[in-house]
Design a protein that fits this description.
It is found in: Cytoplasm. The strands form 3 sheets. The protein has a 5-stranded parallel β-sheet, with helices on both faces. A 3-stranded mixed β-sheet has the order 3-4-7. A two-stranded antiparallel ribbon has the order 9-10. 32% of the residues lie in helices and 18% in strands. It has 2 domains: 152 residues, SPOUT methyltransferase, trefoil knot domain (Alpha/beta knot, 3-Layer(aba) Sandwich), CATH 3.40.1280.10; 71 residues, Trp Operon Repressor, Chain A. By secondary structure, the protein is of the alpha/beta class. Bound molecules: adenine. The site of adenine has 13 residues, from strand 5.
């Protein structure tokens, strides 16, 4: 079954963009997933194809109208379409691998890309949209965020990644609650510009390699993402399940 993505955007020409190349592009060519970008403007009934209006209460910027967004959603999703509707917005809950995983195991997703100041909240709630942010910074629209989310989902679809790109042992697997950042990687040559690869990796002692990697993961997580280590400690006291 093809995993189906539909993107609602004012800039359909931005798609597939980078999703048409590399791993995601190959997956699309092989029919493992599909991408349809729909112009929100096509849902406008205004003779000037207006989609936005000024915010009630005043303030800068424009707001996408609820009626236009509703019509765009209705046109994109037939009654009973089982796919979740995700609204990309800096107001959203932070994107995590757990959401990526649950979207990737479903039938697909419909992604609404905001522009301007935002989208009339009534349609966001009436449609039960899942509001998602890809990080604590503001993009000029949701399109790049939608591409990030799609890339993260598509690489998990069965058949998209080969053994060479295994997703089993990476940061945030098997679940980011308790996961650590990944250990560092090295390949040949064993010495480069006088810099030696850590000796333990050349030793052939699998248990020691695993122990070293675990220690590296903990150290880098402590330094960069102590928030993750806290959930890890909570989990450790219940049942130990590191990323190995
Ligand atoms: N639109 C603008 N900024 C965004 C962000 N950080 N995440 C998701 N959508 C956005």
């Amino acid at each position: 079954m093809t995993w189906r993505a539909t993107v609602l955007t004012l800039f359909p020409g931005m798609f597939p963009g980078p999703l048409g190349t590399a791993l995601a592009g190959r997956g699309m060519e092989r029919g493992l997933w599909s991408l349809e970008a729909r112009d929100i403007r096509d849902a406008s009934t205004d003779r000037n194809r207006r989609v936005d209006d000024t915010p009630f209460g005043g303030g800068a910027g424009m707001v996408l109208r609820a009626d236009v967004v509703e019509a765009a959603c209705a046109a994109a999703m037939p009654e009973g379409d089982p796919r979740p509707l995700v609204f990309l917005t800096p107001r959203g809950a932070p994107l995590r691998q757990s959401l990526v995983r649950s979207l990737a195991t479903g039938p697909g997703a419909v992604l609404l890309c905001g522009r301007y100041e935002g989208v009339d909240q009534r349609v966001v709630e009436a449609r039960g949209m899942v509001e998602v942010s890809i990080g604590d910074y503001v993009l000029s629209g949701g399109e790049l965020a939608a591409m990030v989310l799609l890339d993260a989902c598509v690489r998990l679809l069965p058949g998209v990644m080969g053994a060479a790109e295994s997703a089993e042992e990476e940061s945030f697997s098997p679940s980011e609650a308790g996961a650590l950042l990944e250990y560092p990687h090295y390949t040949r040559p064993a010495e480069w510009r006088g810099l030696r690869v850590p000796e333990v990796l050349l030793s052939g002692h699998h248990a020691e390699v695993a122990r070293w990697r675990r220690a590296q993961s903990e150290a880098v997580t402590r330094e960069r993402r102590p928030d993750l280590l806290q959930t890890e400690q909570r989990r450790d006291s219940a049942a130990r399940m590191p990323m190995d």
